[in-house]
Amino acid sequence: MGHFVLLRHGQSQWNLENRFTGWIDVPLSTKGGEEALAAAQQLSRYRLDRAFTSKLVRATDTLRIVLAAIGQGRIPIEENQALNERMYGDLQGLNKDETVNQYGAKQVEVWRRSYDVRPPGGESLKDTAARVLPYYQERIQPAVEKGDTVLIVAHGNSLRALVMHLEDLSSQQIVDLTIPTGALVVYALADQGKLVRQDRDAASRARKL
């Protein structure tokens, strides 16, 4: 039976500094490397067939650390910007607390958590899904349906868009879904090609980040 594993990259330097990152290419923090190694321990139970990642270094480095730690560095890997984090536009690089002081907590919460409201100059979660889902359906889903064990290393919002699709969550339900850095979300391929969530408690629904 194949498995489909989603992994959010380890903590980045800008996660540590509480900044909006988006498409800015920011490396992992020391803690982020440790989170990648912790994820590798959980992934060591699986024999991976292939992996997919965004183009951003915090994701590619997380994948590299994981595969080296579990001794599976020779599997096919595909990088694509369709899996990149949502683009935060004018908010990129800004400290989140300072942004709240400038725009108000309610407005920042809408920009960060809503489904279809864009931050200034940026993407909404709906916009992010519009590039993630076609890529998933064309490049990843066929491997999953074949029974391969597939790993995706990506970002909080690109993975939220994918979970929303896989679990048929509403635009209201997705507001409360957070995937912490270094966290896994695991699905198993069941009868008739249906993906069944195996770790429903692993993705925190508290609004941490």
UniProtKB/TrEMBL annotation:
<protein>
    <recommendedName>
        <fullName>2,3-bisphosphoglycerate-dependent phosphoglycerate mutase</fullName>
        <ecNumber>5.4.2.11</ecNumber>
    </recommendedName>
</protein>
<comment type="function">
    <text>Catalyzes the interconversion of 2-phosphoglycerate and 3-phosphoglycerate.</text>
</comment>
<dbReference type="InterPro" id="IPR013078">
    <property type="entry name" value="His_Pase_superF_clade-1"/>
</dbReference>
<comment type="similarity">
    <text>Belongs to the phosphoglycerate mutase family. BPG-dependent PGAM subfamily.</text>
</comment>
<dbReference type="InterPro" id="IPR005952">
    <property type="entry name" value="Phosphogly_mut1"/>
</dbReference>
<feature type="binding site">
    <location>
        <begin position="21"/>
        <end position="22"/>
    </location>
    <ligand>
        <name>substrate</name>
    </ligand>
</feature>
<feature type="site" description="Transition state stabilizer">
    <location>
        <position position="155"/>
    </location>
</feature>
<feature type="binding site">
    <location>
        <position position="96"/>
    </location>
    <ligand>
        <name>substrate</name>
    </ligand>
</feature>
<feature type="binding site">
    <location>
        <begin position="85"/>
        <end position="88"/>
    </location>
    <ligand>
        <name>substrate</name>
    </ligand>
</feature>
<feature type="binding site">
    <location>
        <begin position="112"/>
        <end position="113"/>
    </location>
    <ligand>
        <name>substrate</name>
    </ligand>
</feature>
<feature type="binding site">
    <location>
        <begin position="8"/>
        <end position="15"/>
    </location>
    <ligand>
        <name>substrate</name>
    </ligand>
</feature>
<feature type="binding site">
    <location>
        <position position="58"/>
    </location>
    <ligand>
        <name>substrate</name>
    </ligand>
</feature>
<keyword id="KW-0413">Isomerase</keyword>
<feature type="active site" description="Proton donor/acceptor">
    <location>
        <position position="85"/>
    </location>
</feature>
<dbReference type="Pfam" id="PF00300">
    <property type="entry name" value="His_Phos_1"/>
</dbReference>
<keyword id="KW-0324">Glycolysis</keyword>
<dbReference type="InterPro" id="IPR029033">
    <property type="entry name" value="His_PPase_superfam"/>
</dbReference>
<feature type="binding site">
    <location>
        <begin position="156"/>
        <end position="157"/>
    </location>
    <ligand>
        <name>substrate</name>
    </ligand>
</feature>
<dbReference type="InterPro" id="IPR001345">
    <property type="entry name" value="PG/BPGM_mutase_AS"/>
</dbReference>
<feature type="active site" description="Tele-phosphohistidine intermediate">
    <location>
        <position position="9"/>
    </location>
</feature>
<keyword id="KW-0312">Gluconeogenesis</keyword>
<comment type="pathway">
    <text>Carbohydrate degradation; glycolysis; pyruvate from D-glyceraldehyde 3-phosphate: step 3/5.</text>
</comment>
<dbReference type="GO" id="GO:0004619">
    <property type="term" value="F:phosphoglycerate mutase activity"/>
</dbReference>
